[in-house]
Design brief:
two-stranded antiparallel sheet; 4 helices; mainly alpha; 4 strands; flat
């Protein structure tokens, strides 16, 4: 069993069902982290006006794998579900590099 699936299974058993993972405290945590990330995003946009930032709620696993594969062709080659994505609690903050990427 994969590590994350095993960990979630243990949490579900410990919490006597999905309320532990998707319960009130988890929701409060998600909201707090997301609010902090958005405030931080606004702060860095103001602090560094010469840079271009973007906030994203999620990123597709295909995009992650494509980027990994472009760095090293041994990486980013396995996709289990073609349209799967990752949605971090605090979102994703990106900044353009000097070459516009």
């Amino acid at each position: 069993m994969k590590k994350q699936a095993y960990r979630l299974r243990l949490e579900k058993i410990r919490g006597k069902g999905p309320k532990e993972i998707f319960g009130e405290k988890a929701l409060e945590h998600d909201i707090a982290v997301n609010n902090f990330s958005r405030k931080f995003f606004e702060t860095i946009k103001t602090t560094f006006p010469n840079l271009e930032f973007r906030f994203r709620d999620k990123i597709s696993k295909k995009e992650i794998n494509d980027k990994l594969h472009s760095v090293d062709n041994r990486l980013g080659v396995t996709l289990f579900i073609a349209n799967s994505s990752i949605k971090p609690d605090g979102g994703i903050i990106e900044v353009k590099d000097r070459s516009g990427k």
